[in-house]
Batch of 2 targets.
Target 1
Amino acid sequence: MMQDIKEVWISEEELQQKVKELGAKISEDYKDKNLLMVSVLKGSVVFMADLMRAITVPAAIDIMSVSSYGAGTKSTGVVRIIKDLDTNVADYDLLLVEDILDSGNTLAYLRELLSDRHPRSIKIATLLDKPSRRTADIHADYMGFEIADQFVVGYGLDYNEKYRNLSFIGILKPCVYGGE
Ligand code: IMP
Ligand code: MG
């Protein structure tokens, strides 16, 4: 797997440090709330697992699976729900946990869908933000790292379902994309 990596973009240490900071901030903001962390699969699974353990107030968790990308690196703009929440969100303060805010289509769609179920509040935590790529009107309440328009993998993020299990965020060698 490592032979496909051109460069380490964000190291494991930097990620862990940032997650701790975000966890502390969220813990402070949600101390008098009823937090439900919603992991948006599959990309957020690593961030979610680390972030929830950096949070020191009670937190319920649930999982939602959506797909906005095909097999490549460009958004199709189509959001498909693969698995919905199990929780009735009415009494909860929702925190949507995402790996990356790119076009914003996925989260804009999800926020809309979930606000119709009338939770107490909805906020967004994203590990990475690519503001230059934004087309939807959405911003993150908690953000780890802002990155340029660059395709990255690792720490949950994939290319063709691979590289999610890297413990850092990296950039692939161009040859990995083959014919694209
Ligand atoms: P959006 O709807 O365009 O904001 O896309 C969000 C989703 O696209 C993320 O949850 C990722 O699964 C995927 N994505 C966007 N940029 C990247 C990237 O650089 N690497 C891997 N996946 C990405
Ligand atoms: Mg993906």
Note: The chain has three helices and eight strands.
Target 2
Amino acid sequence: MSAKKARTKKSASGGADAPERVTMRIEGRDHEFPIVTGTEGEKGIDISSLRASTGYITLDDGLSNTGSCESTITFIDGERGVLRYRGIPIEELAEHSTFTETAYLVMYGELPNRRELEIFSTRLNASSLIHEDMRHFFTGLPGHAHPMAILTTVVASLSAFYPVSDDMGKDDEDRIVANLISQVRTLAACSYKMSIGEPFVYPSYKRKFVENFLYMMFASPVKNYQLDPDIVRAIDLFLLLHADHEQNCSTSTVRMAGSSLANVYAVVSAGISALWGRLHGGANQAVIEMLEGIQASGISAAGYVARLKADKERLMGFGHRVYKAYDPRAKILREYCHRILKKPGMDAPAFDIALELEEIALRDDYFLSRNLYPNVDFYSGLILKAVGFPVNMFTVLFAIGRMPGWLAQWREMRHSERSKIARPRQIYKGPALRHFVPKDER
Ligand code: CMC
């Protein structure tokens, strides 16, 4: 049995560089597969007919070489450190936009005009209250529960409050979008309040998205919360930078769970669960724990990196499946750290350790040869910590930021003509056929 390397055929015009099809020789027979080209020239081989025509499947651990869909939402060029939402560079959005406006862009494909933005913001505000019966879910969970455990539970339980029909129209989708983008923030604040034994603070019509969230988090009946515009901007920027990131682990989970047409609230809860892991969204918590561990132990940054390499451990907040250059979001957050951590009362000694670690790693052949650069999680936790978020809320903030992306991807999947239930195959490596042995003969 032989499978020959794929050959490519030039386009019919003969002039273009890009081939239109590839030919794969398997067991002496040629099979042709079309090439798909993205807006920015990225190439894929459409193998949807592979098994039917050859009997073969592909094997791709971690799906690193597999395009699971066509998408119009986010573009990443990992080699050049480029990230764009709906074509607009992340740097431009970070400078000129807000989370709410960017959420609209990610969701609906265009920047909103004034009126559209006003309607969207009003919708988010109007959707921010959670059903009073949801309080029971919170009180039923242990006070020491990790806020991500609470968030997955309560977001999934929204499916009990909002049954969703299969033939939902645009208005239903818009309502779901507003509910989830807005309520995940209320639920996050409630989970924090519960964990510290304080009463929930209700959202208010008078405040904007991030202001409302900070108020629900940090105000209490005996303590008014003074909003600091720099802190509001820092959190807004954090959320904006996390709004989407194409087919990452949690987004792929959302698409996969959603492909079965399950209730969207349960689907998003699956995405939140996937995000929790320390190799994904949980890395922002792991980075701060690492930096504080270094600080507490007194080990030098150089000593820590040497030990980590010897033990084959990972430098948290470094490396990325797609970026083989500096993550553009990390670049923006690094600069912002310089700005915000200089404010009085925002002392962050861990920032100096982070800068030192980065400098060492970016001179070290181990990291350079593997293209390991800081990712979004390396600096984000420093900002969250400095503005007063407890470490175990970091991944929850990631989830609030990622909500527009999950929903946009879910919606895109629902409307794609190519969509079908996600059902990968496998290469079975277990025992060959054998027969049942009665208990006494084992
Ligand atoms: N520190 C040290 N070595 C690393 C690191 C790291 N952070 N990341 C990868 N490597 C090494 C790895 O040991 C392997 O070395 P070798 O070739 O000698 O076996 C090589 O680099 C390739 O690693 P990989 O595991 O094949 O790479 P991957 O694309 O599967 O993993 C990653 C990507 C993000 C899971 C990984 O880089 C990692 O674990 N980073 C630390 C956790 C982290 O910061 N996660 C946040 C990711 S960004 C935000 C998000 O997606 O949520």
Note: The two ends are 38 Å apart (CA to CA).
